[in-house]
Please model this.
Amino acid sequence: MEIPILQDIVIILGLSIIIILAFNRLKIPAILGFLIAGIIAGPHAFNLISSQHEVELLSEIGIIFLLFVIGIELSLKGLASIKRIIFLGGGLQVGGTILITTAISYFIGLPLNTSIFLGFLFSLSSTAIVLKLLQERGEISTPHGKIGLGILIFQDIVVVPMMLFTPLLAGKTPNILSTIAIMAIKILLVLVLVYILARYVAPKIFGWVVKTKNQELFILTIVVFCFGVAWLTSTVGLSLALGAFFAGLIISESDYSHQATANVLPFREIFISFFFISVGTLLNLDFFFANLLNIFLLVIGVILLKMLVVALTVLILRFPARTVFLALFSLFQVGEFSLLLSGVGKESGIIPDNIYQYFLAISIITMGITPFLISSAPRITYSLLKAPIPTAVRKRLENIKKSSQAEEEFSEENLHDHLVLIGYGVNGSNIAKAARKAEIPYVIIDTNPESFEKAKRDKEPVIFGDATQSTILKHAHVQEARVIVIAISDAEATRKMLTSIRQFTQTATIIVRTKYVKEIEDAIRLGADEVVPEEFETSIEIFTRVLKKYLVPFDEIQEFINQIRSSDYEMLTSMKKSPHSPALQHLNIPNREIVTLKVQRDNSQIVGKTIQESGIGKNYRVTVLAIHRERKYLTEISPDTVIQQGDLLYLFGHPNNINHLNNLLSF
Model:
């Protein structure tokens, strides 16, 4: 049995792979590869696609998943910290672009409905491209990154009413007021249903599903929710995309939203590729080359228009000049939702075919140059700020900068230099208690429903999700963590986690708990820095109690334990640890540690004396690296530095020597 669409899928995805591999070397987003693959495979080039309608159906599924994921990520609680940028900044940018575009289009002779619709199209930017590039550059939490995120979120929200308003612009309804009223009632009813589902139905269903610990059932439930709500909205005359968006909002308010996103993303990436490919097939190459000059002039005009509106918006938000330039170099392009909306407008007859072709060309070109302008934005901004400008203008910009300092300090909490704790069992909960007592910032990841519920009852910062998946690791900011502890008993899952984590960070220290000795070597090879086997620790604990019964002095027992641990359990096994990366071998100093030691006891030999007088280096063979005193860090340590009671000493030396010093200074 021959399936025509199967041949088309193989051709267009195979072509996409070749193009994206080439683009990856040039650091160009994959979206552009899909667009070009569609252009090449489309009817205006090599006409490689025979099942155009079926490909468009696949692209519709991609849009459903795209809006579903956006709905999941738009948690209302998480957006509260940047609500001013979202609503004021987004409203100014979208409204200003629509107003200016409508005025220019109507002035050159286009109908009013077409002019307004073009304003809709050009007001939207590319969420997929901009956020991906900002994330890769680590600029999401910067002022211009926050501005971009807030405005793009507003655009993603406003595209829904734009799609609903499009039929009104097409004049397909005889009574506009009654149509708006009916539409408002439908939306209100759907919102009530969404609230009921989000508040009462979804949590219970997902709670039952999660307790089964069946991943297939969890994924199936997510997909049914997505398509079920989308189908529901379509039956009352609203769009599938709106329903998918509402379905995402339902899940976003649950505790399982991060894991839902991780499970849906692969589906979204596959199906959304068909959307961009189908868009590429629509570009008429004959029209493009015949009107090349006009297209490039229009591209320049659209870029300048959007940059002007973004600049005015950011200035009104009272951000400094540098942030203004960086923001306008991020949001100048036409976005993927504009492509979706343009298809609706073309079907409704709002825009004629020639304007539609101009729009497609503008969209593809502005998307294509986005990566290059974003990467060059800091350098261009620096040149512009150094350029000679009138004194009055420079003084005004400086005043804006002074008054906006408070605006740049966002209240949204960003995890940084923190502890990531994977697993909230007995070991995990104890580590969390210790971290909380020591005031170490931490976040917990757990996919076990019982452990997750316990962490919530304990009011712990916990994420429900599978730590083998990159999406969950991103939510925990593993790339910015100092220490990552894997405190689970699943050896296979631990191996997958180590591989995934090391793709994000090579600097974080990973400490792994293993059940058996045979798992140590594999964990070290995959990236663990330290491995704590239960077999060894149990043996140490038992032997410690045995030594106590034989009245061996406590200090000697402790020294014996330190020797075993500092030599990586070499006394108990012939296996020897090696660093996870050959490039870090010079950092693996045997029998030496960097530890912190609290000066609790007022020892007259050390406390109140300089480092030289106390003889720490000569007598105890320990080096003081830094001192934490009264919320300040002393990093320039000299022989004349005085040690005071209450100091927190950062020491480097042999564990036995540090332990000896600890006995003198602690209670």
Notes: The chain has a mean pLDDT of 79.
